[in-house]
Amino acid sequence: MSTVAKLLGHQLRDLSRSRSVAGYAIFLGLATAGLLHFGGGVVRALPSLATLVVLIVPLFCLLITTSFVYHNGDFIELLLSHPVGRRPLFVGIYLGLALPLVAAFLAGIVVPLSVAGGLVSHGSEIALLALAGALLTTVFTSIGFLVALRVGDAARGMGVALLLWLVLAVLYDGAVLLAAYQWAAYPLEKPMLVLMALNPVDVARVLVIMALDASAMMGYTGAVFQDFFGGGVGVSLAVACLTLWSAVPGAIALRTFRRKDF
Amino acid sequence: MIAVRGLTKRFGPRTVLDEVELDFAPAAVTALLGPNGAGKTTLLKSVLGLVRPTDGSVWLDGEPIDERGHYRHRLGYMPQLPNFPPHMTGRELTGMLDDLRGFEDRPDEELLDAFDLHQDLDKPFRILSGGTRQKVNAALAFRYRTPILILDEPTAGLDPVASLALKDKVRESRAEGRTVLVTSHNLGDLEAIADAVVFLHEGRVRFNGSLDELLEATDRATLEGAIAGLMRGSEKGTGLGEGTSSTPGARPRMEIVR
């Protein structure tokens, strides 16, 4: 068995007892059940759930990942004192954290929806929501690793992670909206697409909104996005964009890990 | 044989190791000594590959150490702080490390017996005391019967009985022909086990020789006295122990690097 597989197995066993990952799954489960109960069914709960996913998943993944890396710094050092290469160790730890987070997300969202009968009536929408959430999880696990490995001090690192979340999930949209307002007289569809691609939260948001056929709420730009993202090619491009957003920070984090002093 | 060649490590503007040249004696216990921030832990971590040199290299049995870390099959390490994952038990940790090392021989569990740790191995680390975690830490370093042992403050946090058992184990390891590098602020402990002493100050090797040579050169009867003298000498820039100061301008006898 490879070193990565061994590490993954041991870490999955250890994380299965972690309160943070279990708490994350329970929180998502309760939130989904609450939206289903008070929203009046799957159809009306899905848009709210989509908003929740694109806001909450990045935040939890960043916080859980950065705190995991900081809390396990000494243990990572101990593992590196054994005959384990830095690359397989990083990959093992990364997958050992990203996979439980994806599983927690799917358990928290999909289980309540399937109990409410959503899988039968809205299977494709839920599948796309699950895909967007799972990809967002890997994106922000990569970014969390990168922040924790680049910023030595835990308090500063957590602060940077929170600031990143605030910028990407909240402030970025405000800035884009301001830009759209300022240059309203110009054809902005293509620049908007580029701006969206530069923010993984926006890519996931667009993917989810299109899945729920809620583009009409986005006006003219929504029609452009529906045109672009609505088909299979658009979905594939959005998925590729999010995959790139996982891979690039992940690769930089790996490079940092290989050069880091413990 | 561990050889350190021109090893320099800088953290930002601070030079922690400055062109260190060392050959650690095989089948001997070498104590790395020096004031706080002298570079002792950085030197040990450089041998382990945990710290990447700014310049220079570390060689093990004639081969430079590399990132893949295969050479660490020959190393046992006891870190300064026994910070293990809180949910994990000692038995799970040893199982994990056995698995990662691909270790299928009979492990050395003498220290587990000496520390009477077998029952504690089934408890998660979060409920174990700091001292018990340190005992697990010590037992792990010796578990794989490696030819080289690197111990960073090994007796810190251990009770006198456990400390004695650990020192006996170090002496036994040396008798078996293993090479031990150890740092500690407890000079009494080091005096009881060390054959050789490397004294570091501000990242440079100020003394490298046997314990007897150190005592003779500093004209002191104890390691504590010799090191105190060396530290005062280093601070004054002579590199010599108090009481053995050379005449002004004379080459300090302690600036010996073998």
Keywords:
heterodimer; A: 262 residues; mainly alpha; 85% helix; B: 258 residues; alpha/beta; six-stranded mixed sheet; four-stranded antiparallel sheet; 33% helix; 24% strand; globular; disordered C terminus
Structure explained in plain terms:
The complex is a heterodimer of chains A (262) and B (258). By secondary structure, chain A is mostly helical. In chain A, 85% of the residues lie in helices and 0% in strands. Chain A contains twelve helices and no strands. Chain A has helices at 3-15, 19-39, 42-71, 73-80, 86-115, 118-121, 123-150, 154-182, 189-197, 200-211, 219-229, 232-259. In chain A, α2 packs parallel to α5 (86-115). The longest helix of chain A is centred in the N-terminal third of the chain and has 30 residues, at 42-71. Chain A is globular. The model of chain A has no long low-confidence stretch (mean pLDDT 87). By secondary structure, chain B is an alpha/beta fold. Chain B contains eight helices and ten strands. In chain B, the strands form two sheets. Chain B has a six-stranded mixed beta sheet with strand order 6-7-8-3-9-10, with helices on both faces. Chain B has a four-stranded antiparallel beta sheet with strand order 2-1-4-5, covered by helices on one side. In chain B, β9 (196-201) and β10 (204-210) form a beta hairpin. The radius of gyration of chain B is 19 Å and the shape is globular. Chain B starts with a strand and ends in a 22-residue tail after the last helix. Residues 239-258 of chain B have low confidence and may be disordered. Chains A and B meet through α1 and α4 of A and α2 of B.
Give the gist of this structure.
By secondary structure, chain A is mostly helical. Chain A has helices at residues 3-15, 19-39, 42-71, 73-80, 86-115, 118-121, 123-150, 154-182, 189-197, 200-211, 219-229, 232-259. In chain A, helix 7 (123-150) packs antiparallel against helix 10 (200-211) and helix 7 (123-150) runs parallel beside helix 12.
